[in-house]
Amino acid sequence: MGDDHDDLLNTGDGGITYSQRDHSKRDTEDQLRLFISSVVDYAILTLDERGHIASWNPGAERIKGYLADEILGQHFSVFYPPEDVAWGKPAWELECAIRLGRFEDEGWRIRKDGSRFWANVVITALFDESGELRGFGKVTRDFTQRKQAEETRELERLREALLARDEFLSVASHELKTPLTPLQLKLSSLRRLAESNPEALLADGRLVRELISAGGQVRKLADLIDDLLDVSRISVSRLPLEPARLDLAALVHDVATRYGAQAAAAGCHLDVETPPGVEGMWDRRRMDQAVTNLLTNAIKYGAGKPILLCLRADDTVAVLTVKDEGIGIAPTQQQRIFERFVRAVSERNYGGMGLGLFITQQIVEAHGGSIHVESEPGKGSAFTFKVPRTAMTPGNPTASIPHA
């Protein structure tokens, strides 16, 4: 048996290589013509140097609707919408093919009956051995069904986005009114009392108590508005950070102390386990926000049972787990709860705009960390985030912790 290379014939121009074993070059060229003439899924045609149609296959007839004797000799711009012809797109495509060797595009094209279809088009410039342009090869595929499927998916996404927006506006309105309504009632009561019996406001420190209570409602409103502003910032880019040397253990204790009364009112005992002096380069306000969100989430869904805040650390990372023994989260919801405006429970039974966990995830990821949840319905949830103990700033992504 001879070497396989003895059975090959190359055209010598960098083009097709033919087999001499069973057929001559001419026979193989005939096979290529037969192949092109049998293709019905692709429109395969050639153009002369000026863009006039020189050949036409059955696929072109099926896709574009013209018989060969109707279209041969016409300029290929007949397939383009009037607005594309007006700005000279067909000629521009040929120029690109000449300059680059080939041109590919997707866009609307016109059938014989005037209907439009979404086409994938590849135009290849055909040069002879001397480098002279001899015309163009053009292959067109009908991607209309794919385009329609994409548009259907996009419409569904838009529909879901509109539903999410409407739901969010409803929830946001309710949540903003929750602290606003008692604040308005309290201020109205204080005004009536000041008008009728101002001395009573000063008796037994009542005025101070009422003002402290009103201040708490104002803080709730401010927190809700801050959450909305954070979502707006996140939509534009990642949350901006101002990392500085921070003792995360001290911050966790501070947050637990701040919300101790709220936890006690909900029947939740707080346990805090931290090693001393877990220092790193973090944004204090954002890390406070993340720990607060996880703790208040645990208090809300903790069902009056103990809550554990456990901080661990090594030389490179700090890991905080906030664990409750409350209602838990269904497996199907455990990834969705980190999306904006998503709540895994009924709005009627639990308030909230569905932003806390979303913002917490963004804060942790902005610090170069990660967050996950482990939960079982009826047995509670454990949220754990891990953050590196290094500065995560655009200009200094891996800066070490400075020594005191």
Explain what the structure shows.
- By secondary structure, the protein is α+β, with helices and mostly antiparallel strands.
- Helices cover 44% and strands 24% of the residues.
- It is built from twelve helices and 16 strands.
- The strands form five sheets. Strands 4-3-7-6-5 form a five-stranded antiparallel beta sheet, sandwiched between helices. Strands 9-11-12-14-13 form a five-stranded mixed beta sheet. The protein has a two-stranded antiparallel ribbon with strand order 1-2.
- A hairpin with a 3-residue loop joins strand 13 (370-376) and strand 14.
- Helix 6 runs antiparallel to helix 8 (206-236), helix 9 (248-258) crosses helix 11 and helix 11 packs antiparallel against helix 12 (356-366).
- It is elongated, with a radius of gyration of 35 Å.
Overall mean pLDDT stands at: 81
- The total strand number stands at 16
Total helix count? 12
Q: Encode the helix/strand succession as letters.
A: EEHEEHHHHEEEHHHEHHEEHEEHEEEE
Q: Could you give the order of strands across the largest sheet? A: 4-3-7-6-5
Main β-sheet description = 5 strands, antiparallel
Shape: elongated
